[in-house]
């Protein structure tokens, strides 16, 4: 798989990975001395991926499946997929916070427009996975550091996709309640935090043999532990606690409810009533976000009603009338947290359900997904026979292959 690495933050040695996948029929890759422009298209639109805890490039693996839709040797390709590496990537998540993540995402977007697309107006859509969703909502609605103004200085984005947004606190507390060793470790971490001066929290690493019971084998400072575990919730949620099911409506209005007034989220290209493939219509106004919770997410306690939680987020987003949750949002059936798996159900979740929603959303907020003359209806999801290697053609080919393997027709899109 061909990729390109960019250094977007030289001081911190942070990279952007750009997918440059070619069609199978393409000739072998040229030598590195050949200019990129001679062998690849230069798409103006960017889907920028932000991973979760422990993720780094090509993790989760479904980012490869998204990138496979956008072949770079296809004439007039309009989209590219990039993955941003943050200081908190991999096992470093416990040393940094969402404020730093957001700062670096903004730096990456500025770099993309200055050095990759070479246009200050290139559309960028953010897609977060797991804790990466916390980065996205923090990017949209958190105040600027050392400023009372919550917008205007962050680079503008055209959309935000939340895949597998979950509560780290609820996942931690499930393990605390189910396992005595985890409970003891959690209480030890709290005790250390309480006995450490607050101004030392960011510089104090919890003993790894204790903290790994709660959040795995990664160094964890007190500040990030308290942010992820958020012991003051739901009344006093910490920085990371955006997606817990027990947060009040007031808290949701103060986070999701502010999306409609965010200057650095552009209004969608298309507005008005649109119908999803799930059989319902929605009035889309102004700014739009896409939610794709995983239906079989192993990190979500079984007691949580995912549909109810999604409806609460939706009400909060749409409360002011200036933003909407995309009708292409859905709880992805049979999807694990990272939508992995090789069964037909897992591949349908990953290659059909998730990618179908992403493609339709990208076309809604920016455009340039559906081929002219393809007969594609974004409302009903049907398509006439067409050829080519555009993103929708590749998606349809994969969907048809899964349908044939299943041995039935009419896989719901």
Automatic annotation (TrEMBL):
SUPFAM superfamilies assigned: alpha/beta-Hydrolases (SSF53474)
Domain of life: Eukaryota
A Pfam family it matches: DUF1749
PANTHER family: UPF0613 PROTEIN PB24D3.06C
Protein's UniProt name: Esterase
